[in-house]
Design a protein that fits this description.
Blueprint: H1 3-16, E1 35-40, E2 52-56, E3 59-64, E4 80-88, E5 93-95, E6 116-120, E7 127-145, E8 156-162, E9 170-171, E10 173-174, E11 182-183, E12 197-199, E13 205-211, E14 218-224, E15 232-240, H2 252-259, H3 285-291, E16 305-309, E17 312-318, E18 324-330, E19 339-346, E20 353-357, E21 368-374, H4 394-397
Parallel strand pairs: 1-7, 7-15
Antiparallel strand pairs: 2-3, 2-4, 4-6, 5-7, 7-12, 8-9, 8-13, 10-11, 13-14, 16-17, 17-20, 18-19, 18-21
Bound molecules: calcium ion (3 copies).
Length: 418
């Protein structure tokens, strides 16, 4: 950022404003001096952050409303070192930072510092401190696997400037284009980092690119258009489609992790004990993939446990991270239509089991139950999502992956089919 050029411009303007005093003068001291504080967002001729305050030695000396592009003051000072700070109550303005020194913004001796030391000496008539703020918006979102709904950690987030003088520039972290910028990657919960700031003077838009090995790269053209200063934009959940080069609806990374190869031809649907169920737990590999269970462990599966309680039929099942569940019921196990009667619920952090008591089971005992893993957005219909390839359909991800097990005791009052 051309801060030297900015200060040079400010100095020129300072001369033009030399006789312009915006506040009552303190009693003259023996030494005539002057400090001028300038605030800018994009440079001379544009507005300073609204509600800007200039503070000198811990005392507020000027407070400006909107539409001033410059904050300055002039008074008489003794020689000495003064601490000058500019603060703004308006959100959406961040001080520019050094391109090479991450600590400069906190260094009072640095031209990027805020607060900053300004020295009046016997020989300098005018001490100028220029403070340059960038108008910004903050962008937030969460990233998930489009098929398993798992939250994706470590996805790389990039914004590409579209239009304006920086057209084509790729922003990979904040502070932008510095040697020490923290690269934007999603955290363990799939969330954007909290410092995804974009320059927001309304002249440019931004494309979004999200990438991670094992997934199709997502590119959203003009994902941020005409940003307004101070906006917080939450884009909800963004879904990345996993790579599936062998086309078997199993993410290839998952196949490699569990079977050492993604070249196997596991089918999406498999009958009990067929080759698609190598651990013989009754769940096909695809069902285990969607449910987040281990396809090589007989003990790891989605299994509905019924209990009979005084308050009604109670159901329990083990849960896996990032999955969303619902309970469906039918009165006719053979030909009946299933209806959602409980849920949906997403697994909480650390949760290993869900329990649910059917409130109608006392009066309507003639019911069969199953639990399903469903896409998370079923519970959060207002979320925005996008992906480079469509997520698996609700049908394929909500397949019946557990059903009423005939070989365990049925709840009191329930009747199984012949
Ligand atoms: Ca695959
Ligand atoms: Ca299995
Ligand atoms: Ca299993």
């Amino acid at each position: 950022m051309a801060i030297n050029k900015l200060i040079k411009q400010l100095l020129l303007l300072a001369c033009a404003y030399a006789g312009f005093s915006l506040m009552s003068q303190a009693a003259p001291t023996s030494f005539p001096g002057s400090i001028m504080v300038f605030c800018s967002n994009t440079g001379i001729g544009t507005n300073a952050p609204p509600q800007t305050h200039a503070i000198l030695n811990n005392s507020e000396i000027l407070s400006y409303p909107d539409n001033f592009y410059m904050v300055n003051f002039a008074r008489y000072f003794e020689p000495g070192t003064y601490t000058v700070q500019v603060v703004t109550a308006a959100s959406g303005y961040l001080p520019i930072q050094s391109p090479t020194d991450p600590n400069a913004v906190n260094d009072p001796n640095s031209m990027y510092g805020n607060p900053r030391y300004v020295e009046i000496t016997a020989s300098n008539f005018l001490a100028v401190a220029g403070f340059h703020f960038d108008p910004v918006i903050r962008v937030d979102a969460g990233i998930r696997d489009a098929w398993t709904m798992e939250r994706i950690e470590g996805a790389t987030i990039e914004y590409i400037v579209s239009g304006g003088p920086g057209d084509g520039t790729v922003l990979t972290g904040y502070p932008w284009l510095t040697s020490y910028a923290e690269t934007w990657v999603s955290d363990a919960s799939g969330a954007f980092p909290t410092n995804v700031y974009l320059y927001a003077d309304g002249k440019e838009s931004y494309h979004l690119r999200i990438s991670k090995p094992g997934y199709h790269t997502l590119f959203v053209t003009n994902s941020v258009v005409t940003p307004r200063v101070g906006d917080d934009r939450d884009y909800g959940t963004i879904f990345l489609a996993p790579l599936d080069q062998n086309g078997n609806q199993l993410g290839d990374t998952w196949e490699n992790d569990h079977f050492g190869s993604a070249a196997q031809s596991f089918l999406a649907d498999g009958a009990f004990s067929d080759p698609n169920d190598p651990d013989n737990d009754g769940m096909s590999n695809h069902a285990e993939y969607i449910a987040g269970t281990d396809p090589n462990d007989w003990n790891s599966c989605l299994w509905l446990q019924p209990f009979s309680t005084t308050g009604g039929v109670e159901l329990a099942w083990t849960v896996e991270p990032d999955r969303t569940y619902r309970v469906c019921g039918t009165t006719n196990l053979t030909a009946g239509e299933w209806f959602q009667i409980g849920g949906t619920w997403e697994t909480a952090i650390g949760q290993t089991e869900m329990r649910w008591i059917d409130p109608n089971s006392t009066d309507n005992c003639n019911l069969y139950y199953k639990v399903e893993v469903v896409p998370c957005w079923w519970a959060e219909p207002n979320q925005v999502f996008s992906a480079s390839t469509p997520p698996q359909t609700a049908t394929s991800t909500s397949q019946q992956i557990s059903y009423w097990p005939e070989d365990i005791p049925k709840p009191e009052g329930l009747v199984l089919p012949d």
